[in-house]
Write a structure and sequence with these properties.
Radius of gyration: 33 Å
Number of helices: 27
Number of domains: 5
Strand content: 15-25%
Distance between the termini: 59 Å
Helix content: 25-40%
Largest sheet: 7 strands, parallel
CATH topology of the largest domain: Rossmann fold
CATH superfamily of the largest domain: P-loop containing nucleotide triphosphate hydrolases
Length: 832
């Protein structure tokens, strides 16, 4: 063994014997680095290994006892991998258990193969430290069934506290481990009192000079005051309504305090700081402090103490579902270490690494489920539909407009899918007005040859009716592939007699193409030969609704469409089971909509523009966030505002009203009147967000614009500018606060839906794209769907593992298989 390695072994062995107190060397392990580095270079050790040891030992003093032990294990394993053979000391040399050594938190396992390798982090751009990440204890084996135990097994947690904890989503020990802090306060900076500055969060160590409690506010409150000195200066510390502190703090007692430095009458003070006796292990002071979500009757200090007990004992026992080679390749922390560090981090770098690992898990498990779903459908067979170039040319030439290159490319993708012999799973994405409907019509026409049937499901009756009109015009005109009677509409408002006729036509096969809403998935609706399912604005349908419609055929082809631009990161994750086609080209003649952000005081300017457009024969939308006024919300509402606008602002023009609570026949009637020009101004809620096509409308005024997401605002803006006339979108937030307006300024800056979608995803999360929480996967707690580097790392690792073991049937993937099942709940349905 080389002298430098032998010296390292001696120091580390002595450190283990002393219980990892950093006193094996005078001045701590960092104190021997200078001489050791010289010896190591003389022994021709690699510079990379030398720097790795140096970085870890420089931070050793700041680590907890458990983390110090992990650090030494990590370094030994690193040395062993690099030097190999007998040159590297055995890990077991650190496993001797002298009477004063730290008690291990998990049973020791002596087989070297079961000790997790030490991954090297090389991702500075992700915020993960470049220094080696410490290994956890040897990997525990088997399931951690005890984590399902009720929290009442914990000392001093009875039924009353357990009931209160359920409000935080905590019922079991496992829930506690995954109840992450919402933020952290940094009290790791220790300063003498004479160097304190106003406004900083710090930790001080001092002696209690005096302590007393007095009444304030006519005896209604109590104020406890202490004077703390550290030799450099003294500071006055106060606590409100905590008189018990005078019994806990005694004159001459040494304590540690952490909090914000404040000022009173020109002197620095600390109000309500956290404090602990000097001899205790610091949990609430002198470190990075976790701040947990709370509920009534639970204090931060009580919960933090409880969490520390659970995390200290149980986190090291959590079984990591990811195999060792994947953890090393992905350059992520072992799960037990990540769980410890996300709750009680040793440093900000370790906290970032822990957050990265846990976010990685969420995306990785999501990706495995998506890949399994994609594979399931890819293995099935579907009817093949093949059309000639002459047939396709005839359909395209019969259209009253010329297809864009992007539309032609989309049709080519769909033709290839339909002729593959496997079910098509394609997402057709295109901005408002890009021409997705005609592409869907051609797809339906192909699927209805040879007695096939197609079904198109839309989220609203209004949109379904509009699609029906468009499909009749495109497919049943002169020379069209379908007859008028072979295309039908089925919505909730369809009379029962008409519904029965349509059901009969679908079951007999005389109806080839049905367009409708949720009525299509009601049990009485049966198809003779359903070959294609088209779902418009797919994120508005739940998992079970999509699966229900698809189950009415035998492996039908699936085309889902959306006008909501989906950011690439979201397309890679949530919609990863679908092949993606983007129509990124607008038809000739579409106008760019000029967008302006106005303050509430500038509302009259908006009205003047609308008057001007109405005088020129055009029409306008005015959108409100609410249907009716609410006592809880101060937002303007459509019903009341329609009356005001009609009577006071636009008395010479007919002002219509449209909202989701109206009966279907009422919506149909008012929309027909608007299309025909009788209604000149349509007052509405966001029900018009999708699919209302009135080319004569040139102004879109959105009140309470701060209540809508950018993706939704972009959809609403798309309702105007559909003709050849210059159009306008006016945004008026509820109030003039700069923060909200900064977000809305993005609407005025760009008409690019993808840019807005990225900003919306970053600011508001995935809700605007997924609608209500999708039931196909668990809610993401830490993963940020805008973090492309994280997503691509997790996605690449998922693909590599899936290629080797798609069934997760290998023994090393047994625990991962269980984790995927838990993440995806019952594993039913699609998410896209």
């Amino acid at each position: 063994m080389k002298p430098s390695i032998e010296k390292l072994q001696k120091f580390f062995k002595l450190e283990a014997d002393r219980g990892y107190d950093n006193k094996a060397v005078l001045g701590g392990l960092a104190g021997m680095l200078d001489s050791w580095v010289s010896d190591a270079r003389a022994d021709n050790l690699s510079e990379e290994l030398i720097q790795s040891v140096s970085r870890r030992l420089k931070d050793y003093e700041r680590l907890s006892q458990v983390s110090r032990k992990e650090a030494l294990y990590g370094l030994w394993n690193r040395i062993k991998r690099e030097l190999g053979g007998t040159e590297a000391p055995a890990v077991e040399t650190l496993d001797d258990k002298p009477k004063n050594a730290v008690k291990p938190l998990v049973p020791a396992q002596k087989e070297e193969s079961k000790v997790r390798p030490q991954p090297e982090i090389q991702q500075p751009e992700t915020g993960i430290p470049q220094a080696p990440i410490t290994a956890s204890e040897p990997r525990p084996e088997g399931s951690t069934a005890a984590l399902n135990a009720d929290v009442t097994v914990l000392p001093r947690v009875g039924p009353r506290y357990a009931k209160t904890l359920t409000r935080l989503g905590i019922s079991t020990l496992g829930d506690m481990i995954y109840h992450f802090p919402r933020r952290y306060d940094d009290y790791s900076q220790l300063k003498p009192i004479n160097r304190l500055h106003y406004g900083e969060d710090i930790t001080i160590i001092g002696t209690v000079q005096q302590i007393n409690t007095r009444n304030i506010r006519s005896g209604k409150s109590k104020l406890s005051e202490a004077v703390i000195s550290d030799g450099s200066a003294a500071i006055r510390v106060t606590w409100f309504n905590q008189p018990w502190i005078t019994q806990r703090l005694n004159k001459g007692m040494q304590i540690v305090l952490s909090g914000k430095v404040e000022q009173y009458l020109g002197r620095l003070t600390m109000n309500n700081p956290e404090w602990e006796p000097m001899e205790q292990k610091h949990l609430h002071t002198n470190r990075i402090i976790p701040i947990y979500p709370l509920t009534a009757r639970i204090t931060q200090r009580w919960l933090r103490n409880l969490m520390h007990k659970v995390i200290s004992y149980w986190a090291p026992r959590v079984v990591d579902p990811l195999p060792d080679h994947l953890i090393e390749n992905a350059q992520i922390l072992p799960l037990p270490v990540a769980l410890q560090q996300i709750h009680f981090p040793d440093s900000w770098e370790m906290l970032k690494a822990a957050q990265y690992r846990l976010a990685f898990d969420e995306i990785f498990l999501l990706q495995i489920g998506v890949l399994q779903q994609k594979r399931t459908w890819a293995e099935r067979t579907a009817h093949r539909f093949r059309v000639t170039e002459d047939w396709l040319a005839a359909q395209v030439n019969s259209l009253p407009f010329t297809l864009t290159n992007a539309q032609q490319s989309a049709i080519a993708d769909i033709r290839k899918d339909l002729d593959s012999g496997h079910p098509m799973n394609r997402l057709l994405q295109g901005d408002v007005g890009s021409g997705k409907t005609v592409v869907a019509a051609i797809a339906a026409a192909i699927a209805t040859i040879k007695d096939g049937q197609a079904a198109m499901m839309a989220p609203t009756s209004i949109l379904a009716e509009q699609h029906y009109d468009n499909m009749l015009r495109i497919l049943s005109g002169d020379g069209g592939p379908l007859k008028k009677g072979e295309i039908r509409l089925l919505v909730g408002a369809t009379p029962e007699e008409g519904k029965q006729e349509i059901r009969n036509g679908l079951s007999s096969g005389s109806i080839k193409f049905i367009i409708g809403t949720h009525a299509l998935i009601e049990d009485p609706v049966e198809f003779l030969n359903l070959q294609m399912v088209i779902i418009d604005e797919q994120h508005r349908f739940g998992v079970k609704q999509r699966a229900s419609l698809r189950s009415k055929g035998t492996n039908p082809h699936l085309l889902v469409t959306t006008a909501t631009p989906i950011p690439r990161s979201l397309a890679l994750t949530v919609y990863g089971d679908l092949d993606l086609t983007v129509i990124d080209e607008m038809p000739p003649g579409r106008q760019t909509v000029d967008t302006f952000l106005l303050t509430p005081r500038e509302r009259e300017r908006a009205y003047r523009l609308i008057h001007q457009q109405l005088a020129e024969g055009y029409q306008a939308f005015i959108i409100y966030p609410l249907v009716e006024e609410s006592e809880k919300l101060e937002e303007k509402a459509a019903v009341e505002e329609q009356t005001r606008l009609q009577e006071e602002i636009f008395p010479h023009y007919k002002v219509g009203l449209l909202h989701g609570r109206m009966k279907p026949w009422e919506k149909e009637e008012i929309m027909a009147d608007f299309r025909d020009g009788g209604v000149r101004i349509m007052v509405s809620t966001s029900v018009v967000e999708v699919g209302v096509d009135v080319p004569n409308a040139t102004v879109m005024l959105i009140e309470g614009a701060n209540r809508f997401g950018l993706a939704q605002l972009h959809q609403l803006r798309g309702r105007v500018g559909r003709g050849s006339t210059k159009s306008y979108c006016l945004l008026i937030p509820q109030r003039s606060e700069a923060i909200e307006n900064e977000r809305l300024k993005a609407m005025a800056e760009t008409n690019d839906g993808f840019i807005l979608a990225e900003r919306d995803l970053d600011q508001r999360g995935a809700g605007d794209f997924l609608g209500t929480r999708q039931s196909g996967f668990s809610e993401l707690k830490l993963a940020n769907l805008t973090d492309l580097k994280l997503i691509e790392n997790a996605r690449n690792q998922a693909h590599k593992l899936f290629e080797k073991d798609p069934e997760l049937s290998q023994p090393e993937h047994e625990i991962l298989l269980d984790a995927v099942a838990r993440f995806w709940q019952d594993g039913q349905g699609d998410i896209s």
